[in-house]
Design brief:
Oligomer: single chain
Strand order of the largest sheet: 1-2
Low-confidence stretches: none
Strand content: 15-25%
Helix content: 10-25%
Distance between the termini: 12 Å
Number of strands: 2
Structural class: alpha+beta
Largest sheet: 2 strands, antiparallel
């Protein structure tokens, strides 16, 4: 299966705006202390 998403979060550039969390099509991003983090996905 081909992966169609890029898993990159630059925590130094994260402003805490939550835009990435809101648009992620697989709900893989969560916010912790106003910094974006990737959730552990078990496929």
């Amino acid at each position: 299966m081909e992966e169609k998403f890029i898993k990159i979060i630059n925590k130094n550039e994260c402003t805490g705006c939550r835009a990435c969390e809101q648009v992620c099509p697989v709900n893989a991003i969560t916010m912790k202390e106003d910094i974006a983090h990737l959730k552990e996905l078990h496929i």
